[in-house]
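Ticket #4471: complex job returned nothing on first submit. Input attached below:
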Amino acid sequence: MSIAITTQIICFTVLSFIVLIGALGVVLLESIVYSAFLLGGVFMSVAGLYLLLNASFVAAAQVLVYVGAVNVLIIFAIMLVNKKEDLKPINDIKSRRIISTSICLTLLSLLIRVDLTNVWSLSSPQNSIGEESTIRIGEHLFSDYLLPFEVASVLLLMAMIGAIVLARRDVMNEDISTGLPVDQELIEKSSEPLLTNKN
Amino acid sequence: MMHLESIPIQAFLIVSSALFCIGIWGLLNSRNAVRVLMSIELMLNAVNINLMTFSSYIDNNLIQGQVFTIFVITVAAAEAAVGLAILLSLYRNRVTVDMESFNLLKW
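Support reply: We reran it on our side without changes. The output follows.
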């Protein structure tokens, strides 16, 4: 990479700081809307980390798919289900918090220990191919990863149809082909409109 | 100050470990179902950072880690779409997104 090492370290420090603080904000903030926008910031910073690792294609894919699709989808879901509700208090919340926090800290210390003590066999010329990586990814996708590539297209089609079927709410009164009335109870019971914001 | 040729691999790995653990904490402790999905996205991103780091530092000729990251991004997009659709139909049946109230499978 042609960027000087000092610049790289400064960029890495700033980006990883944003990633970690943003992730803590996503998990800890009270308002779910702030969490969603912070999640977008985390995704952008992760794309910046990919750029530091010389992977411009994956960084672009990260911005397009995560920030452009997943984050917008999450914001839409928040908009559709944002009913203010008073959560029932859990009586053993304190012990749950202690147990889960200790599990996470233990896992974190284990992972960091592995990261620091293992001797990584790094290849000597760092980042040798650089911008050629996009060409290399294309070659991989159409030669030795062709089957996973095709299966991924089937997976996306299944996810699209599944999401439509699961999220659909209006059901027609009669069957299109036979003209018989459809059993509404079987498909979906009628319910209140989604945006019930009465509190 | 010691002389560095590039950012040490451990720095990237530690960031990804911390991001993964934050995701697990959020997964275990969130009451809002949307926040649970967001925590899953955080964990997937941590895994992606790990794959990209190893692809860049260890396997920088045949960048197979980057291809794996592309596939993980694809699966994550499908997972987010289906997960949010399930969330919408859950909300329609229960009129809540509180994780504690989804106890139909509790024995």
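The mean pLDDT of chain B is 89. Closing as resolved unless it happens again.
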